[in-house]
User: What shape does this take?
Amino acid sequence: MLSREENDLLTRVGPGTPAGEMLRRYWHPIGFAAELKKRPLKKRLLGEDLVLFRDDAGKLGLLTLRCAHRGTSLEFGHIEDGGIRCCYHGWLYAVDGRVMEQPGEPPESNFKDRVRQRAYKVEELGGVIFAYLGPDPAPLLPRWDVLVREDGVRARQGRLVHCNFFQMIENSVDQHHLKWLHRTASTPTWDDGEINPQPFDYGIVNTYTRRVDGKKWAHVNYFVFPTMNKTGNVEEGHPTEHRASSAGEVMRWRVPVDDTSSMHFTVEFGAARDGQTVKIMEDRSEQGIVDTKHGVYRWDDSIGWFARADQDRAAQESQGAIYDRSTEHLGATDKGVILLRRLYRESIEAVQNGRDPIAVVRDPAKNEMIRLVPHEDLLD
Assistant: This one.
């Protein structure tokens, strides 16, 4: 179990909090390129209210939400004249936060040069828009394989989940839940197996070895710091059901909106094989981050249980907005959870001591494409 103080250390993400400062050393998804059309979008990330937009030259901008003049939300601003113009009194901001115009001020005034809207770095990769809210020098935006591969097709989806991000990312290192939370009447039964999480350069390698119908299988996927997991498609009818296939690969980000809500981004990539691409999910990136209703989960009559896409959310949200870990009782199957918490504390301490946390990428030679290959091995 964790004390309340230890739990707060891991779950509070606002400016100045230990976890929040650590998380600000990474790039986080904040939206999709397809949802960002001619209007600015209000976004919230790590407890900060922001406005995301493209200027009329196509440059991305990410500014604090409220106009520096009188506090009106820039989500209602006009995209024009090289920036975003506040709807209230016409102040015009560039993507870097400079004030370009202040209508009504005397022509000789240098007032606009003494005011600046806070701006953050923002980049697009693989149809996803990423934001960096931390100090300079910013690390490189990691070029994860699902974002940059060109030998197949890509799809994106996003939704809002109504709980703290940490109980979502703990799910990624809890391999034991696969057998129980995601079971159906047709799911093969297997023994409890062996759970063996190990740290690596980017986070945690999850290996779950179990015996199914007399054969021993090893399922390998990845937790990638600070909030992602990388796995393969679930293939219906495979002997182990929860197959980690490198033909169709999925990366999911559980991004803190604030302490009690999270954005769940999914990017799925299907590689072409013999001229055919693996079937993947539908691309819904034009819809942006779709809200969900807490406590309402889709039922699937074909399996007599919640639909697969809502099973994890039901387990995570039902723990409460921020689970009180002082009441928990960890067991032998929770090795991954224990390791994740340890690595988080170490990364927080690294930032407090002026160092980079785990998995921050600064070497361009290591960032051409970061390839992580999930797999399912038949051992005997």
